[in-house]
Amino acid sequence: MKTTIPLSKLINAPARKLVDRALAAAQARVPIPLQIRSLHLLLKARQRLLRQLPFPVPVEAPIPPVDEVALGDIDVSNPFLYRQGRWLEYFRRLREEAPVHYRPHSPFGAFWSITRYDDILAVDKNHEDFSAEPFIILGSPPEGLDVEMFIAMDPPRHDVQRKAVQEVVAPKNLQEMEGLIRSRVQDVLDRLPENQPFNWVPTVSIELTARMLATLLDFPYDERHKLVYWSDLAAGSAEATGGTSDTHETFVAVADMARHFTRLWHDKAARSAAGEKPGFDLISLMQGNPDTADLVRRPMEFLGNLALLIVGGNDTTRNSMSAGVLALNQYPDEFAKLRANPGLIPNMVSEIIRWQTPLAYMRRVATRDLVFGGQFIRKGDKLVMWYASGNRDERKFERADDFIIDRPNARQHMAFGYGVHRCMGNRLAELQLKILWEELLARFETIEVVGEPERVQSNFVRGYSELMVRVQRKVAAG
Amino acid sequence: MATMKFLLHDGSSRNVPLIDGTSLMQLARDHGVPGIDGDCGGACACGTCHVVVGSAWLKTVGARTAEEQQMLAMTPDVQPGSRLACQITASAALDGLEVRVPEYQM
């Protein structure tokens, strides 16, 4: 029998090696935006010359009720599962019948789903058996955009890079920021139209997170919406998360992002060389730490860590800001409870984050053959820790699907992850949400959802693109 | 009854009774000791019940485990006597113990 090797394979492997070597050498010298552009050209050329097919665009089809699907056919990587409201029944069935579930075929390859709280906790804590490298999303980012982030690095490399930047969101820094965050929230809320429906998502949730990001990065305030645009593209690639980003548009955006941040980096370096006191923003912190002081010369890490912090502070807080409004409207008794006792806000913030779980999962790769949850898992297998499912696990949370603002163990939600990769921005997220709700309660008599929300297409981000709301101000006392 | 003391960052302190078999994190939470968050509920998975044990007590209390070390590795103000309170079990042997609560948990 004759085996034919496709021509593309023959050319591809050695050509790739050569290109990779040249790239590594060039990376430290060529300006980053140019590098991104040439990677983009390379991708286009490969797709044309080597007939590499672009990742298929996910097409929405109605998802059947879970009882009509055989256990082995369940594919929770479907980016429409959340949008179509089927995710609850699918994950409940996996938790009951196959808590460590194998899906051999999906657009993102084979993967295991871990869906119970205790199992997810065990995997998340064990970075030796379950590596976060090379990516934490189900698929792979588009070739050429596979930047390096410490969220997808194992110790000790992870620890070094995280330590360099975590101070920016450390509680000490947050105390300084509280006043600023509050005045911005007040400003945004004071401008809201009264008695007239508006989309809460861009008007409140996106606006507030964009302002926060611009502050953390010391990014030009007037251009803050670029941060949101870049973040949405980066998190929304079809091959990574089943999202809607166009790969070529993403390349252009990443090159633009690289240009902005390289300029910001050099500008800051020049100012501190001239004797200016460094600020307490992310880039200044990186420049002040010997481990990351030359990060700009390692472009894929530089871009990766900036993208990580932007995405990490964008979709998460944004969608929790929208989720609180939606949840309190779906559970009016809880809204009444909150009005009667605003002291419940901190606990409610944890409950909002549990109920929403704005990022559905993190992915790991087994570093050796092992048995987990009675299943034989091979070295190299992908495992997906479905935080969104763990946060609805009835074994951990009573009436897990209900939104209960004084839930005693709400703080034990797993939306921040556990172990060494636990979200470093968790206290900032909680602070932003706490302030938002304090200021909302102080201002508005009613905050009413007036239409079905529009949910985003993704297997990773659980969020809203539209939430129509009408507010009514309190009558001024006196 | 055996008791222990949490020394808080503001200079004040809290005495709590030692209940055999209960973790120091749980004791702190049950008695409303500020500065101990214990987000994960005692699974050694979040690092937010950091306390510092003085050198005089370290031998009795014991050094931190590898699992604790992993969580504490990222803590900015980690000390030789740093432990996670959820991993220390109360017993009569700890009567009179004092531990310091850091300014912040993260």
Description:
The complex is a heterodimer of chains A (478) and B (106). With 478 residues, chain A is of the alpha+beta class. Chain A has helices at residues 7-27, 32-49, 87-97, 117-125, 157-166, 171-190, 200-217, 224-235, 238-241, 247-273, 282-288, 299-312, 315-330, 332-340, 345-356, 387-390, 426-443; strands at residues 100-103, 111-114, 130-131, 198-199, 361-366, 370-372, 375-377, 382-386, 444-449, 454-455, 464-466, 468-473. In chain A, the strands form four sheets. Chain A has a five-stranded mixed β-sheet with strand order 1-2-8-5-3. In chain A, strands 4-12-9 form a three-stranded antiparallel β-sheet. Chain A starts with 6 loop residues before the first helix and ends in a 5-residue tail after the last strand. Chain B is α+β, with helices and mostly antiparallel strands and 106 residues long. Chain B has one domain (3-100): Ubiquitin-like (UB roll) (Roll), CATH 3.10.20. Helices cover 20% and strands 19% of the residues of chain B. In chain B, strands 2-1-5-3-4 form a five-stranded mixed β-sheet. The longest helix of chain B is centred in the first third of the chain and has 7 residues, at 24-30. The chains are: A alpha+beta (478), B alpha+beta (106). Chain A binds chain B through residues 121, 124-125, 127, 155, 159, 162-163, 166-167, 170-172, 409, 411-412, 416, 418-420, 422, 424, 426-427, and chain B through 37, 39-41, 43-47, 67, 70-71, 73-74, 76, 103-106.
